[in-house]
């Protein structure tokens, strides 16, 4: 007899460890400080401790805990488990070195490509499909997670990326003739092998994640994807022996996929009904009521897996009871991978702000409290319901959150705010800057040396005072300025030594944001970030960058470019509010930054760059939601710059080169100069732009800063020529692909010297 689905569950949990134990184990193993056995022991302990903790927090039923652990990436794990990537497996696990070679590359082979997982800041490894790919079950890793947990007294639920999502995320290797989804049937048969083997090992439930079904996947209609999913799951659910199948649809709402999955015969369906998702698609609850039969167990993902706010438990309970279903469980909308472990690890957050937050552990408690309340009423979990109610009320009333002044300022914005004078007038006015032909510049940051990092850390820990810190930074600026002068760069930057991170730095200097001590979330592999928390109306208590930029200008006769991070990127890399629209927060940040731009301009800085590398990242997963997003995001960027004089030159930097559907938006940013990544695509990106009404300055990167390789002068000359074939010389800027922060000085010096030499060679020739 297989067990029924647990009443309370979550669909995934962070895996880096509450004290980043996994990160430390990974990095020690990679550096050769520990061997494979020690690594295995460290992550074994982490997994078992996690299961114990989750049980303590209330996930006590069999199969309530997902086995969502991964050494590096869950997409890679699934691809290996079904042979989409061929693998050698050792007795019970993947071959570790081969696994990390795929993820990180070796001297001989480059790593798998990495890209963002849906609209989150997690990066997955992109599996490559070839005609010769032979799918095959490799369930050893899944089996070992199950048996290890069982030995410690836990029945955990294996998790795989579902077949439809796996294929839509895969890319085809050059020369491949079939498109990935053509191979769904074949792949489904191998999924069936994998889960049948799990069933034979005594596993009652497996989880298959299908976020692709809540997105618009280029090249397919929603119906086509749904039909594919319906077929795949009918095969899996219709087979004679298999565990019960739980399919999740996180990060948004199902359209055609809802009836396809409901009628496929799967045993449980996990849906995202977080308040944020319901706000975007208010009809979802009704569609669930109409389309999910009682025979399908509904797993209601009501606790938001991606935000950091304490849930409104009473409202959540009302939604759950409103569903009116017998076969109902309580869960998270997405994996909790996207939030830090626990608020209890934070000691420096303002106490009121801390009381409004729920990280992963607190969210598990919320799931448990709702589950109990569903049968026993809210009084049975009065403490949790009271906490939720208090958090909601104190937050709504807090003077820290609401500023009448900020609200008045955004409310007074007019529809035509945000537009500068026409470009022709600006171009004329900017000729006073006397920018030379084919001007050279960099994207902003210079390598962050150990001394710079130490000075910042010492200052944060009060080991050095403000004056000592300031002189350390100024000394660094002096070095970076004279280096740029020696190299012959035309537009000088200060190098950003004072910034730990381009978003956190601004969050620390704006009111309305809090930063955490231990709020780490996984970005990819062992890489973690600590996103700032935007909790209130945003304002700028004092100028932020002005002093550094004006100091820089005193050190050189050349043009100096000020450097800011734009509102969309600040939002994209922070935890955002759930009590006001993103567009409102964007306007608030934009107005604060516009004061900064005005101050820079008044201080004589004639060029200001406003970076928006995340503009494309926040693009909604559904096409129908995209225009509204692009409207507010573009407007917020323009608001930053709308008050500057025509003669002040505004640059922007975007970290990618595939403009696709956002090309109109990029054009609408109306920056005077736009720098983009182009070195790796060898200027192909300019084809998109050349066809376009993109008549302003453009700086396609000629130096790929993601690699330590120093590009040669002929190579750079060739790229500049390739750019000149597509862009008129008077519009072209010569710059690297991105900031130089992660590189070393020796390669940066050599590469920039070559960049200037290549530019000079091109100029001398004409
Ligand atoms: N100005 C930033 C830097 O140079 C831009 C970084 C980015 O685009 N991600 O580091
Ligand atoms: Zn960049």
UniProtKB/TrEMBL annotation:
Enzyme Commission number(s): 2.1.1.14
Swiss-Prot/TrEMBL keywords: Amino-acid biosynthesis, Metal-binding, Methionine biosynthesis, Methyltransferase, Repeat, Transferase, Zinc
Cofactor annotation: Zn(2+)
Cobalamin-independent methionine synthase MetE C-terminal/archaeal domain mapped to chain residues: 438-758
Statement: the UniProt record of this protein carries the keyword Methyltransferase: yes
Pathway this chain belongs to: Amino-acid biosynthesis; L-methionine biosynthesis via de novo pathway; L-methionine from L-homocysteine (MetE route): step 1/1
Start and end residues of each Cobalamin-independent methionine synthase MetE N-terminal domain: 8-324
GO molecular function: 5-methyltetrahydropteroyltriglutamate-homocysteine S-methyltransferase activity
GO process terms (BP): methylation
Lineage: superkingdom: Bacteria
Primary role: Catalyzes the transfer of a methyl group from 5-methyltetrahydrofolate to homocysteine resulting in methionine formation.
PANTHER family, per database record: 5-METHYLTETRAHYDROPTEROYLTRIGLUTAMATE--HOMOCYSTEINE METHYLTRANSFERASE
NCBIfam families: met_syn_B12ind, PRK05222.1
Family: Belongs to the vitamin-B12 independent methionine synthase family.
Protein name: 5-methyltetrahydropteroyltriglutamate--homocysteine S-methyltransferase
Protein's gene: metE
């Amino acid at each position: 007899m297989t067990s029924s689905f647990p009443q309370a569950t979550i669909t995934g949990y962070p895996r880096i460890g509450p004290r980043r134990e996994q990160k430390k184990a990974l990095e020690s193993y990679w550096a050769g400080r520990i061997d494979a056995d020690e690594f295995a022991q460290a992550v074994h302990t982490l997994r078992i401790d996690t299961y114990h903790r989750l049980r303590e927090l209330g996930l006590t039923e069999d199969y309530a805990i997902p086995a969502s652990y991964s050494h590096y990436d869950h997409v890679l794990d699934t691809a290996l488990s079904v042979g989409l990537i061929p693998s050698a497996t050792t007795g019970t696990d993947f071959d570790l070195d081969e696994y990390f070679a795929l993820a990180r590359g070796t001297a001989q082979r480059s790593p798998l490509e990495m890209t963002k997982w849906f609209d989150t800041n997690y990066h997955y490894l992109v599996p490559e499909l070839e005609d010769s790919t032979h799918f095959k079950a490799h369930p050893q890793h899944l089996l070992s997670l199950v048996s290890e947990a069982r030995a410690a007294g836990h029945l955990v639920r294996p998790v795989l990326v579902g077949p439809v999502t796996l294929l839509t995320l895969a890319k085809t290797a050059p020369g491949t003739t079939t498109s990935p989804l053509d191979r769904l049937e074949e792949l489904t048969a191998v999924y069936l092998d994998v889960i049948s083997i799990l069933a034979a090992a005594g596993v009652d439930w497996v989880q298959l994640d299908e976020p692709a079904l809540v997105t618009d996947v280029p090249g397919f209609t929603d119906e086509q994807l749904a039909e594919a999913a319906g077929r795949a799951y009918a095969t899996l659910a219709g087979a004679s022996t298999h565990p019960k199948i739980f399919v999740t649809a996180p990060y948004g709402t199902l359209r055609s996929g809802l009836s396809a999955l409901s009628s496929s015969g799967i045993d449980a369906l996990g849906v995202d009904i977080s308040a944020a998702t319901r706000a975007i698609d208010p009809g979802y609850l009704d569609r669930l009521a109409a389309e999910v039969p009682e025979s399908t167990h509904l797993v209601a993902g009501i606790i938001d897996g991606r935000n950091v706010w304490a849930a409104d438990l009473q409202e959540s309970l009302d939604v759950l009871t409103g569903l009116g279903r017998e076969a109902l469980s309580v869960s998270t909308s997405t994996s909790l991978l996207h939030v830090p472990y626990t608020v209890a690890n934070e000691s420096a957050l303002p106490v009121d702000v801390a009381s409004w937050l729920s990280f992963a552990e607190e969210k598990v408690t919320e799931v448990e409290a709702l589950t109990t309340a569903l049968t026993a009423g809210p009084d049975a979990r009065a403490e949790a319901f009271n906490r939720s109610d208090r958090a909601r009320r104190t937050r709504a009333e807090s003077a820290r959150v609401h500023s009448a002044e900020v609200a008045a300022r955004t409310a007074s914005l007019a529809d035509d705010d945000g537009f500068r004078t026409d470009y022709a007038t600006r171009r004329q006015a900017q000729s006073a800057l006397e920018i030379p032909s084919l001007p050279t510049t960099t994207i902003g940051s210079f390598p962050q040396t150990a001394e710079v990092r130490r000075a910042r850390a010492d200052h944060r820990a009060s080991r050095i005072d403000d004056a000592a810190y300031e002189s350390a930074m100024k000394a660094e600026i002096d070095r970076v300025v004279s280096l740029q002068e020696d190299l012959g760069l035309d537009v000088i930057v200060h190098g950003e030594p004072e910034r730990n991170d381009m978003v956190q730095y601004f969050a620390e200097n704006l009111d309305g944001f809090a930063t955490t001590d231990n709020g780490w979330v996984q970005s990819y592999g062992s890489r973690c970030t600590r996103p700032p928390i935007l909790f209130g109306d945003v304002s700028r208590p004092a100028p932020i960058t002005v002093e550094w930029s004006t100091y820089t200008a005193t050190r050189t006769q050349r043009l100096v470019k000020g450097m800011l991070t734009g509102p969309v990127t600040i939002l994209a890399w922070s935890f955002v509010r759930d009590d006001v629209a993103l567009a409102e927060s964007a306007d608030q940040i934009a107005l604060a930054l516009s004061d900064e731009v005005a101050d820079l301009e008044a201080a004589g800085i004639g060029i200001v760059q406003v970076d928006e590398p995340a503009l494309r990242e926040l693009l909604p997963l559904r096409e129908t939601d995209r225009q509204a997003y692009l409207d507010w995001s573009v407007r917020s960027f323009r608001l930053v710059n709308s008050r500057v004089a025509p003669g002040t030159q505004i640059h922007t930097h975007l970290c990618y080169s595939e403009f696709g559907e956002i090309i109109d938006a990029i054009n609408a940013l109306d920056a005077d100069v736009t720098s983009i990544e182009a070195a790796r695509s060898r200027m192909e990106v300019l084809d998109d732009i050349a066809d376009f009404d993109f008549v302003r300055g453009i700086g396609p990167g000629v130096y790929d800063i993601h690699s330590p390789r120093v590009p040669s002068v002929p190579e750079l000359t060739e790229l500049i020529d390739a750019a000149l074939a597509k862009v008129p010389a008077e519009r072209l800027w010569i710059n690297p692909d991105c900031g130089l922060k992660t590189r070393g000085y020796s390669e940066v010096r050599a590469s920039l010297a070559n960049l200037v030499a290549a530019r000079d060679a091109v100029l001398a020739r004409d």
